[in-house]
Amino acid sequence: MLLFVGLGNPTPDSENNRHNVGFKIIDTINKRFSLSKQKPKFKGLLTTGNITDKKIYAIKPLTFMNNSGICIRELIEYFKIDPKDVIVFHDDLDIEFGKIKAKFGGSSAGHNGIASIDKFIGQDYSRVRIGIGKPKDNMEVADFVLQNFDEDEMVELEKIQSNISNYLSILIEKKLDLFSSTVNNK
């Protein structure tokens, strides 16, 4: 079994924030693969189903970005999911907008949601980092990540969400480099 985690903040005004790209990916996966209806469990919105003969749990933590690890730890302890079978989708400032990089382990690189997960389950899990670009004109990082995507970026984001779901089977097999190169070349 695998656990997909999408990072974001659960307030209605956060829906189209750069920081909420992880939530958007989970929503796309849920819809594309007809996972169960979202249910509030483990301090998050949980869905379940099967994709390529794998049992999948997908969750959007409701604990807010900086406390995402609380939700994840509860869920993996309950279902006895090994951290190496966790895949987290999140925004990344250090990657050009629209680019995707998947990797296993590593540091949080200043991402508070990842730092929280590291604190509660360690660093031995996979991450799908979705590039949101860097702030311009001396904008503070906190303001930038909480800013909504503009109209053109929303169109591009829909393509990114579609690419990720189209090639999810590669990610499920944990072929992270192949997944990264495939989704970035589409």
List keywords for this structure.
186 residues, globular, seven-stranded mixed sheet, 7 strands, Rossmann fold, alpha/beta
Strand content bin: 15-25%
Number of helices: 7
What fold name stands as the CATH topology?
Rossmann fold
CATH class equals Alpha Beta
Number of domains: 1
Report the radius of gyration as a whole number of Å.
15 Å
Overall residue-averaged pLDDT value: 96
Secondary-structure element pattern, one letter each: EHEEEHEEHEHHHH
Indicate the percent of residues in helices. 25-40%
> Outline, from the CA principal axes?
globular
Low-confidence runs (pLDDT<50, min 5 residues)?
A: none
The CATH superfamily is identified as Peptidyl-tRNA hydrolase
> Structural class, from helix and strand content?
alpha/beta
Strand tally is: 7
Give, in spatial order, the strands making up the sheet with the most strands.
2-3-4-1-5-7-6
How can the largest sheet be summarized? 7 strands, mixed
In the CATH hierarchy, the architecture is 3-Layer(aba) Sandwich
Terminus-to-terminus distance: 28 Å
Give structural notes:
The protein is an alpha/beta fold and about 190 residues long. About 35% of the residues lie in helices and about 25% in strands. It has 7 helices and 7 strands. The chain has helices at about 20-30, 70-80, 110-120, 140-145, 150-165, 170, 175-185; strands at about 1-5, 40, 45-50, 55-60, 85-90, 100-105, 125-130. Strand 2 (about 40) and strand 3 (about 45-50) form a beta hairpin. Helix 1 (about 20-30) packs across helix 5 (about 150-165) and helix 2 (about 70-80) packs parallel to helix 3. The longest helix is centred in the C-terminal third of the chain and has 16 residues, at about 150-165. It is globular, with a radius of gyration of 15 Å.
